[in-house]
Design brief:
The chain has about 140 residues and is mostly helical. The protein is built from 6 helices and no strands.
Length: about 140
């Protein structure tokens, strides 16, 4: 059954959320299982110990599970929220890069920003399609 037939009208936005869901789940598992390797892959030039990165991994994985439910259940009312909550995250990552000089934060900024760009683009295209559909 096509998403439009189920009453789901924001297909592009919905598809963009697979990117966020993927990086949240993968990063969460990676930080839980191998935090040092995860930080190296993210170009960190610092060590963060063993305990707090695993806690951070648990938080990321938990947020990823929430995203899974948003995607699985097509909760369109939360699509704009997924954009809004990431904007401060982008700003903080950029500031932390400036403050610490650690490339980790620039990498995180790029990852999150790409997701925001995908979701905003999908949202705008879906809204335009919605307007065009209402005219016909």
């Amino acid at each position: 059954m096509r998403s439009r037939e189920r009453g789901v009208h924001m297909t592009r936005t919905w598809l963009s959320l697979f990117y966020e869901t993927g990086y949240l789940l993968v990063a969460g598992v990676f930080l839980l299982a191998a935090p040092d390797t995860a930080f190296k892959l993210l170009f960190s030039n610092n060590s963060y110990g063993d305990v707090l990165p695993r806690l951070f991994g648990t938080v990321l994985f938990s947020i990823g599970v929430i995203f899974v439910q948003i995607v699985r259940m097509h909760i369109e009312e939360l699509y704009t929220t997924t954009i809004v909550v990431r904007v401060p995250l982008m700003a903080v990552n950029l500031w932390l890069f400036y403050y610490s000089g650690n490339p980790l934060f620039l990498t995180l900024f790029v990852i999150v920003t790409l997701g925001v760009v995908l979701t905003v683009t999908g949202y705008l295209l879906d809204q335009r399609s919605k307007v065009n559909d209402s005219r016909t």
